[in-house]
Amino acid sequence: MHDSELFGPRARATSLAAVLVAIAFICLVTLALPHDSELRDPGLAVAAVALLVLGGLVHRLGERLDTRQIGGVVVVGTLLAALANYAVGTTTAAFGLLFTFTALYAFYFFDLRFALGHLALVGVAYAIQLAVNPGPSAATRFLLVVGTPALVGLLIARLLRVVRAETARSRRVLETTHDAYAALELDGTVVEWNVAAEKMFGASRAEVLGRNFGELFYPHEEVPAYRERLRVLRDADEVSGQRFEAEYRRPDGTTFPAEVTLSRVEGGGRAILASFARDLTDERLRETEQAELAREQAARREAEHVAEMVSGMQLLVDAALAHTTTDGMMNALIPRVRAVLGADAASVLLREEGRDSLVVRASTGGDPENRRRIDFGEYFTGVVAAERRPMLEQDPRLDEVADPAMREAGVTSLMGVPLMVDGELAGVLSVGATAPRRFTSDDLGMLRLAADRVALALDHARIYEREHRIAETLQRSLLPEQMPNLPGMGVSARYVPAASEAEVGGDWFDVIPMPGGRVGLVMGDVAGKGLSAASMVGSLRSALRAYVLEGHAPAVVLEQLNRLVWAELEESQMATLIYVVFDPVEGRLSWVNAGHLPPLRTAGDGAPAEFLHGARSVPLGVLPFPAYEEATADLGQGSIVLLYTDGLVERPGSVIDIGLNALARAVDEAPEGTDALCDHLLRELSPLGGAADDVALLAFCNEPVTDRFEFELPAQPESLSSVRGLVRRWLRQTGSTEQEIAEVTTACGEACANAIEHAGAGSSSSFELEGKLDGSGVEVVVRDFGVWRPERDDDHGRGLGLMNTLMDVVEVTPSPEGTVVRMQRRLNGAGTR
Amino acid sequence: MTELGNVEVREEEGVVVAQVSGELDLSNSPATGKAIEAALPASARALVVDFTGLTFLDSSGVAMLFGLVRRLGDHRQQLHVVAPEGEAVGRVLEIVDFGRAAPVYAVLDAALDAARGA
Fold first, then answer.
1. Which CATH number do you get for residue B45?
2. Residues 380-439 of A with CB under 8 A from B
C-alpha cells in the first residue's frame, strides 16, 4: 500500500480544491478591503477567478484525477498564487497558505521529491516576491497572523472529516466480512478485533483489546511456536505475510481449525500485523464427509467388484452344470471366463490322452475346428502344462513365449493356469488381453478359481460322457442291427436317440423269428435313463427271448417277465412292453400289452388306421401277480401294424391324445411300405432340433402274396419252419388242396434241408429260395453255395426220394459254386386262380 | 425243446409211450430222438412213438425213427409207431416205406395192444 493512497484520491482532490478556493478568497478579500493605489486590480481579479475555476474543476473531477494531473494542478495553482501576490503588490497571506499546504498536503499525499520540488517552487516565488514588492502592509500582516491559521484550521478540519469517513468505511468492510480480522502489534497485542472475530473466537472486543493474542487463543504448548512466527514477521524488512492453518482454543475450552493469513502491514511509520482467520470447521466437516463418501464409494466399488466376481463365478458354475458334454460345456464356459476377467481372448487346451501335448479344444475368436496341437514346454501354454503352475506374462517378454496365434491377435498380457483333475494335468486354461489391459496377480488368482471350476466341470462331463457312451453302446448293441428277412412279412424299425445332451433312454425293441414262421415283435420302454436303464433293457431282452423260444404263449411270457422285473428292478422302477406274435401264414396277430401305448393298425385299403386297444394291462414291475390277457386280431394282406414308444407322441405341455391323433393322421397320409412309413413318421412328428426323448418305431406288414417270391435265408435248420410257413401261405391262395400244400411243403423242406447241410453245421452262409406260380402248377428253385454231398447213406437218399415222389420234376445240378435244385409240380387248384 | 415240437414220455405196464406233437424237422429231430432215448429205461419191453399230434415230419424225423429202431434192436426192445392215415406224417412214412422197419398203427390203442402182447 502506497502512502499517497492512504486516504484515497477523493480526499486528495478535495483538499487541493479547498486550498485553491482559499487562495482565491484571499485575493477577493484583498480586492474588497480598502487598499493602496498601486494594487493591480485587474491581475488580481483574473488570478482569483482562475483559482476559483481551477478549484471547482478539481473538486468536480475529484478521484478521477490521477497523480500526474494533480501535480499539474498544484504547479498551476502555485503560479496563480504567485501572480495574485504580484498583483497585490505586497506579500500576502497566500504564500503562508501555500507553505502550510505543501507541508500538510504535498508531504502527505505525494512522494518526498514532489513535495520538495513544490517547496522550492514556492520558496523561489516568495523570494522574487520579497525582492520585487515592499514589506507587507498592515492589512496583510493582519491576514498573515489571523487568516492563515484560520484557513489552515478549516483545511485540517475538512481533511479530518474526509479521513474519518474513509476510515469508517474501511472498518465497516472489516465488520461485515465473515473472516475474523484482528490487528496486532508486532508482539501480538490485539489492537483491532472485528465482529466476526468476536463470534469466531467467542471473545468480545473489550475482552481482547490490549491483551496478547497468542496467550489468549493458543494452547500452552503451542505459544512458543506462535512467538517464533511473530518474530519472523517482526524481523522481516518489508511487507510479508504468512498463510497457515491453526487450531485455536476458545475461552470456553472448545477448539476450532482456522486458516489464517497473517500480514505485516506498514502504516504511519508503524508496523502492525493484520490477521484474517477463516473458520475451517464446516470445511473440515465437509472434507470428512467427502472422505467418508469416497471411502464408502470405494467400499461399494470393491463390493460390486467382488459381487461381479462372485456372479461371474456363478456364471461359470451355471455354464458348467448346464452342459453335460465336454464340448458343450467348454463352448459355454469360454466366453464367460473371458467376460469375468475382462480378457480379449480365452481358450481351453485339453491334454491328449496319454501324451505330453495339448490340443486347443475351445477358444473365443478362433476357428473352433482348428484344433491346434501344442507340445508340453512349447510356447506359453505348453510351459504352463509342463510346469503345472499358474503363470502370468506381460510385454515385452511376451514375444518370446506366446504362440503365433496369440501374437497375431495382438495380445500383450497373458495368463495360463493348469487344469488339474484328480491330481493329473487335464489341460490348460489361458486368457489374453490386448493393451491397455494388463493382468495383475489378482487376475491370476481369479483365473485359478475359474480353472478349479472348469476342472471340476471337466471331471463331471468326462464321467458323464463315459457313462453316456457306455449306455448308448449298450443300448445300440441291444437293438437289432438289421431286421431279419422274414417270409411273408416286411419289417422296418427306427431308433432315434434323444437330442445330444440328454441321457440315453430305455426304449428298446426286438424281432424274434419263431418256429413255424411266426414272428415275435417287442416294443418296450424301461423307466429311467442312462446305464441302469440300458442294463435293464439287456436283462429284459435276453429273458424275453428265452421265454419266447421256450414256446410259451404271449400272456405267459409276460407273466414270467413280470416276475423277473418284480424281483430285480429297483423300487419305483417299471417297464412298459408290448409283445405281439404275428403268424404270416394265418394272417393273425396276438398280443399282450403291459401298460404300453396301443399298437396302430392300418387297414391296407385306404380306410383310416385304428389303435388296437385290447389286452391292456399294468406295466411290468407294478404288481406281483398281474393278469395278462391275450388279444387277437386279423392282419390282412397289405396291412401294417406300428409299435412305438412315447417319444413319438408325447410333447411337453400337450395331452397324449393329441399326439396319438397326430400319429394316426400321419400314418394315414404315409406312403406305402413299412420303411416309407417309418421315415414319414419321423419326419412329420419329430420336433425341430431333435426329440427330447428317445423315439423307437417298429412297423411290420402282412406282405401281399404274389405269383413269385424270392428269399434268402440263413443256412440253419431253424430256417426250415419259416420256409414251410412261407410255402403254405403262398400256396393257400392258389386254392390247392391241403394234401397238395403239405406235399409241396415237404418237398421244399427236404430241398432246403439239403442246402443247409451242404453249407455245413454252424455256417453263417445262406441259401436262396425262389417260387413261381403259373396257370397250371408251381416251380420251386433252391440254390445253395456249399459243396454237393453224394448220397452216402439211406437218410439222405430218403430226402431225395421224398422229393422225387412228391414232385413231378426234380433236377439237381451240382457245381463247384454250389447246388441248384429245381422242382415242378402240377396243382389241381392252381388253374382256378 | 422249442415250441416247434414237443415230446412227452410216460410208461404204462412196461411199455414206454412217447407222444410227439408239433413239427419235426432238421432243427429238432435229433434232439427229440435223444430225449426219447434218455427217457427209455432198459427194463422197458417196448416203445410206442405216438405221432398223433404231429403235423409235420421230414426225412430227418424219419432218420430219427430209424435210429431208434437200431438202438431198440440192440436191447431186444420193440418200436411201435402211431401215425393217422391220410395225414401228412403218415404219407411221409408211407413214401419212405417205414413199415418195413417197424409197425405203424393208425391209432394208439392198437399200438399199445401190440406192444403189450409182445
1. 3.30.750.24
2. none
